[in-house]
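W.,

You were right to be curious about this one. When I first looked at the sequence I had no strong expectations either way, so I just let the prediction run and decided to look at it fresh. Below is the sequence, 357 residues in total, followed by the output.
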Amino acid sequence: MIKTKAGIYFCVLFIFFLGSCAPLRYFKNADQGFIQTTKEKVKHFQLKHARDTIDFIVLSDDFDKKKPVLFYLQGSTPVPLIYDYKSDDMKALLVFSFLKDETVKKLKEKYHLVAISMPAVPLSLGSEDLNEQAWHVKEKEPYIIFHTEYNAANVLSNYVNRTKKVIDFLTKQPWVDQDHITLFGHSQGAKVAIAAASGNKQVYKIGFSAGNPFGSIDHLLREYRYEAMFGDISHERSQEKINAFYSVWKNIVANPKVLDERQGDSNRNWLSFEQSLIPYFLKTKQPIYVCYGTVDPKSVMCDILPIYFIRAKKTNLTMKPYPGLEHNYRPVDEKLKIAGESIMDSVIMDFTEWDFK
């Protein structure tokens, strides 16, 4: 069993982003930190943080204009922000490529768009450095092995610290409206968004998209049950898979500092993300927008969030479930098989147009 969250899950975000939405955004390198395309400018920034370097990009149509900032915090797996076609000096912007050009144009009218690189993953990589899923790996065969530096940095606290460092930097830039810094995180990025915003007065509002507010293991086990319920495997096989994961979890807990893993994500990663996010939610005073597909095993437990907020007498939560959609907002058939295109563009626009007052 591959002990990688994305390997275990039935959907790989990267494949979804590239396979079913807008075409990639191509560009060539330009001077002074800019990456110039035929349609837009992408500016690359680099910050030093502990032993890691934080690369992040800003997509904008006007760096001389003071505007709000919208962070997109991506999901798991070590995918670079940029794919390098080294043979012809062309590159493709992977992040934001899951959105249609029209959507990106609308977003840039209002925001500077920000994306942060995954920790210990270079900003730009070519095919020789990536596996078939476009992951930056140390070894591709016979087992996927991530780089030790990535395994060491691939923990929730580090993602949160990196995000806060970028926020601190941006609030000092003359082209940033420091009173309107918005975080929108999808899947694992949703966990980073709520944790980075909790108790952080620099954040204006938060979008929690398709995240699990109760860790990560419960939805993994739920997926095994779903497989049996919809006839993909027997109920006996479902139980065998659950029992097998119990053994995996015992090993993770017994060896919390293991970094080099022949089964994908390190034990440190599993332990760091296997925690309830409810304390972060309840500590957060800013408006929180929770969106998710109602047939997504990973985020269906968002249904419980209003119970906690009502009990705590908090009113800063807005729920936006999308009935009948899966993790990446695609419709499914009666057996939960993907049966249509994603409406991610609508999801993002719904969030940015949300009137929380």
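Here's what jumped out at me. Residues 235-254 form the longest helix (20 residues). And, maybe more interesting for your project: The longest strand covers residues 176-186.

Coffee later to discuss?

I.
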